[in-house]
Amino acid sequence: MADSNRKNLFVLILAAGKGIRMKSQKPKVLHEVCGKPMIYHAIKVVKALNPDEIFVVVGHGGEEVASEVGKLGVKTIMQEERLGTGHAVKISIPNFRSFDNLLLLYGDMPLIKSGNLEQLLQDFWATGSTASVLSTIVRPPSDFGKVIRNPDNEFSEIVEDLDATPEQRQIGEVNTGIYCFRVPDLLGVLEEIDNKNIKGEYYITDCVNMLSRKGKKVSVMVAPDSTDFIGINSRVQLVQADAVMRREICTRLMDSGVTIINPAMTYIDDGIEIGQDTIIFPGVYITGKTRVGRSCIIGPDTFISDSIVGDEVKISYSVVKGAEVMGDCDIGPYSHLRPGSVVMRGGKVGSFCEIKKSVIREGAKVPHLSYVGDADIGPGANIGAGTITCNYDGFNKHKTFVGEGSFIGSDTMLIAPVKIGKNAITGAGSAISKDVPDGALAIERSEQKNILGWDKIREKKAEKRLKKG
To answer: What is the pTM of this model?
Structure first.
């Protein structure tokens, strides 16, 4: 953040709550919104501000949360006793005492925008305030703390909903729980707050109110969109926040040149990259660390996770996990690409095929009803319907190699380890357990026998059974 008024900025994210209403063993802030933990979204937003330091206060499931935020290069403070937001800030004093400015927010508000925080900081510095409160307007009134203003429309106090009068509960301007403080002024009042309230907790809002009563400048910035401040305390709210963020993701992608036929039925995680002129049909899930190229057609009803999809690829009614699909490939319908699979340029994996830890090379085709596991299928090879690579002997997995230009007949069993040479052919219905030389035809099946008059023999057998019966 470039600002001439900016002095060292410490960001404190409160994430110690248990989230009782989530009904979960998992810490609340580790529940995911669009594929990422809630706390990830909070950290991502504040990192955009380029602060000097970020700390997260953890409590319930503290080790799990600390491990997750540690991956993002953020440190934690353990709140052993959850005695309120004021208490969480108190125990953090040794970490922020030497800083000039403190930005305080919650870790369970994944829809916060960095623009809101940037504007709050600018307002804080421009007005020379000792504290700034980020508020928003909610109709009908919610259970957030109420922002009370004096007759001059300036800040008077924040009243928690549980402690509010019936008249105050009708106020639409609410406290989002996001604040800026000048650290020296905050330190001056932190030790004075008490827990004489209905919940028996120490409220950080009491610090704001106390600064106001002491005649210190407290400013309020009203954010225009209350949706940005949805706090997650239940699975219902989790789904609501997820839906909002997914709409935002789809909007950004459409603005960048991606066609999404029905955003309400499209599920794309945060951080997914999709190229221009790609079309996404309904029922598509794109998750994890996935990249999709340009001019692709994805869906309908397709799941892609942690995969790389090249340009001009078609994938329909299929599952792709941990795989790479290079340019100009055709996948599906009803294909399953498992982790470690690679389909190279021009390759095809068709109806009801499963590919596991295999390479389908340039122009090779597995058109339908096949299982290919631990295999290397050469360029231009064709795998006939019903082909199976028998890769497991009960103890170990073995490799199958199919050479360039080979043709594997329908219903062939390739019993690994085995190599099929270039331009080789296997007869339909064969069980191939020995290597096949280049250009050879391999047939393994018993000689066909035709028993003449079998229909008459069957009739005589049937008559005998009837007589016995």
So the answer is: 0.90
Residue 295 lies in a domain: no
**CATH at 51:** 3.90.550.10
User: What does the radius of gyration of the chain's CA atoms come to, in whole angstroms?
Assistant: 32
Tell me which DSSP letter residue 249 carries: H
The kind and range of the H/E element at 419 are strand 418-420
H/E run at residue 431 = strand 431-432
Taking the CA atoms of residue 297, residue 302, residue 305 and residue 310 in that order, the dihedral angle to the nearest 10 degrees is -20
Which residue spans within 36-145 are E strands per DSSP?
36-37, 53-58, 75-78, 101-106, 131-137
Phi, psi at 298, each rounded to 5°: -115, 125
Q: Where are the alpha helices (DSSP H) in 194-278?
A: 204-213, 235-255
Q: How many residues does the chain have?
A: 469
Active site residues: 368
End residue of a domain, out of 177, 205, 229: 229
For 174, the 3-state DSSP assignment is strand
d(CA 304, CA 310): 13
**Dihedral in degrees, nearest 10, Cα atoms 204, 205, 208, 210:** -90
Tell me which residue range forms the domain holding 380. 318-442
DSSP 63-82: HHHHHHHHTTT-EEEE-SS-
Dig out the tokens for 287 from the structure.
């998750």
Say yes or no: 39 and 140 in one domain: yes
At 356, phi and psi to the nearest 5?
A: -130, 120
Q: What is the DSSP letter of 447?
A: P
- pLDDT 10s digit of each residue in the chain, 469 long? 444 445 699 999 999 988 889 999 999 999 999 999 999 999 999 999 999 999 999 998 999 999 999 999 999 999 998 899 999 999 999 999 999 999 999 999 999 999 999 999 999 999 999 999 999 999 877 778 999 999 999 999 999 888 888 999 899 999 999 999 999 999 999 999 998 877 888 999 999 999 999 999 999 999 999 999 999 999 999 999 999 999 999 999 999 999 999 999 999 999 999 999 999 999 999 999 999 999 999 999 999 999 999 999 999 999 999 999 999 999 999 999 999 999 999 999 999 999 999 999 999 999 999 999 999 999 999 999 999 999 999 999 999 999 999 999 999 999 999 999 999 999 999 999 999 999 999 999 888 889 899 889 999 988 888 887 6
Does 68 reside within a domain?
yes
SS3 155: strand
